[in-house]
Sequence to fold (147 residues):
Amino acid sequence: MKWTPEMVIQAFKEVVTAVMGLVVVIFTLWLAWTALSYSANDTMMSNVKDIMLLVLGLAGIVIGYYFGRVPADARAAQAAHEAVQANAQAQEVTARATTAADQIDSILARAGASGSLTARSGGQQNGTDTADELRHLRDTLRTLSRS
Fold:
């Protein structure tokens, strides 16, 4: 697979984001481990606790970003797949409607040339009604295939 410029930029952004996230999480873990060594000193523990409040907020944002992004990416991929399927189905319906309209045109052309609609229906009015119904159906199918 050949990398496009967009793929390179996306990969760079992912790597930078992952490195920054790892740095924040590792720093948070290191700071928490260091805070345990200051548990005997109340003054130092108070200072470490204030710093930990800020760093834990950043770590929470990083972790929330990654855990929230995975389901969102999965939903986006599923939606794209469903959109492709819907477009394919719409094209199939359009093709079938066009084919049916063409078949009706063919039937009307054969019937008009041979006068078979009138002969089969038993009279001129019934033959005209049948031809009109076929034309209406053909027009409906053409409209469907264009939409």
